[in-house]
Predict the 3D structure of the following.
Amino acid sequence: MVRRSRILTALLLVTALAILAVGPVMAASTNKVLSTNFTLVNLGDGAAEGTIQYIRSDGSTWKAADSFTISDPGGQAIYRQYFDDDLDDGAGSVIVSADQPIGAVVQILARGQNPTTSGAYSGVSTSANSFVVPLVGRNGASASGLANSQIVIQNAGSDAVDVDIELINADGSSRFTKEFNIAAGASATWPGRCCSRCVRAPGPRCPA
């Protein structure tokens, strides 16, 4: 049996032109084989037409863009990466653009594994140059075993950008920083540690 690992995991929705930005979750937070699907919902007052771009972490094209039409307001379309033979196994980003407002939900699945597990998330309303993650964990105890976090950063801009991740101790002092250069539309990820984190692009310093 072939187990497909096609992972789309961070979501970004922009109001004027709805954008679904999806980034990777890798084995640093789990040893399971993960895959995804996402559902698009037409939130407008007419037929929604748009395109879906699949982007690798280096900014290159993962597969040719898909086009879609959701005819009715409130209608939906579901895209299952684990059934998409045009996608190589791996992780990347998706950008969805449409002529109507679009909502989106992503499901992350460990299909056909013991135990079979899943999770889901929806998007934020806008992008920003600074986000604070109040709590992350590494090898933390949970009811289902060790818990690990992962930070996924999506570049919603049209140019490559330098992004810093800053680890912040409980007393507010800076512990460590890691810099990424992220291609336009692509995403980057970093394994978790046991403290708060601040993700920032060039601009004001993140609050502790």
The chain is about 0% helix and 50% strand.
